[in-house]
Amino acid sequence: MGFWNRRERIVERLADWRVSGTHVDESLLRVENVVLAGPESRNGYRYAEVALRGAVPLYEGKPVFLDHAINSSKPYERSARDLVGSVRNVRFEGDRVRGDIHVLDTDSGRTFLALAEAGTASVGMSHVVLASRNREKTIVERIEDVISVDAVVFPATTSTFREQHQAGEMILVSGSYEAVIEGIDEVLAGVDETLQRVAVWDGYVAVRAEADPFEIREWWEEESGEFAVSEVVLEVTEEELQTGNWWSRIGMDGDDDGEESVEETVQELRSQLKMLMERSTPTSWSRGGGVGLSERELFLRAIRG
Question: What domain of life (predicted)?
Fold first, then answer.
């Protein structure tokens, strides 16, 4: 049996991250009173107040980067060169999550300070979180983890969770391979952050968690449009993945259902054979030693119906 997991990776851009109390202190390498999250999403849904309040400790100490991860399916794989600093002194004030960004004295850190000081309208803050929304997809009910806070360019409204204004980013089309892969990645991230998608086939996905063996799981799309991924169906080696030999083990590994099914079929055929022999051998032949149909012929007739 599979499961539907409500956790999903959400990318939220904040163009209004600066407020009247935001202060840039270049001497202390600090940007104070930055808005990290608010009740209104530019993607058309809302954040419940309880979700924002509960996220305060999750933001504390989180890293701040320049731009988002290059590979959106692997948000934890970031370059140290892009690290700006970390979020400190996080609190909930005026219906928003706010914090101070302590900046590193590095190229990325100084670039961020310059952008913050310049007040460029096209620069904004963005967070990448794991969160749960209600079934109607209208309210974020809980933020379960904060992956990172990123400084991005062109923090414009997006119609999906993908950053459509990022250079080279494509729009997700329903039913496309890209949409399927994105949906599977979101489910896997909600199951275990260490799971890494290796390959996708029709109905199956190969994943790996750190040094564990490769796992084959089933995937499908629900009527609601959500994707689901099953528990582990099969554990395979890299060689089996490359050669495709694992396909022959699907439905056979770890159970005896196949053998039991064959045995049941044989028993049923033997019963049919016995009945057919009784019906096909006249009593006069049996008494007189006559010969009816051979057992082999009767068995074949039973098989053929």
Answer: Bacteria
